[in-house]
Amino acid sequence: MEAWKEIKGFEGMYSISNLGNVFSVKSNKLLSVRESKEGYLRVNLNNQGKRYTFTVHRLVLESFDPIVNMDEFQVNHINEIKCDNRLSNLEWATPKENINHGKHNNKIRNYRSNNSGNCKKKVICTTTGKPFNSISEAARYYGIKAKSNITYCAKGLAQYCGILEDGRKLEWMYI
């Protein structure tokens, strides 16, 4: 079940969930995230005209599992998938522990080869039963211009995204 907490320093403005979703109270919507060149998801938060950029994994762990001296620790992704920001996949680690975790799991490789495709979410159009390897692929197939609309639908924030020629509404879910 998705649980939410206010983000420290941005109380009343932004919340983060234990699944890694970031919500803006003011705009009443989920914020979009972007992937850094290292493969981590980042989000921009605004406060009094200033923009701040945070990694989503750090916001999740700081909000749901705060510890003393957090600045001395790094966030380790237990399954080594950098865009999997579920609380159950995150843990505090010293820099040495974080590096050793990757070596132990034989997963330290070039970012491009290690993470290509890991962050893509598979979806299915429940109206037609057609599965897709990514939201981009689904959007291209049905000619949907805004990929984010499929995302909103798959997250249950919208009822449908797209309409077939026969008038049926395209409904989506993650697989």
TrEMBL record:
Keyword S-adenosyl-L-methionine in record: no
Top-rank taxon, per record: Bacteria
GO MF assignments: endonuclease activity; hydrolase activity, acting on ester bonds
Database matches in Gene3D superfamilies: 3.90.75.20
Descriptive protein name: NUMOD4 motif/HNH endonuclease
Pfam families reported for this sequence: HNH_3, NUMOD4
Domain HNH nuclease: 56-98
Alphabetic keyword roster: Endonuclease, Hydrolase, Nuclease
Domain NUMOD4: 2-46
Alphabetized InterPro entries for the sequence: His-Me_finger_sf (IPR044925), HNH_nuc (IPR003615), NUMOD4 (IPR010902)
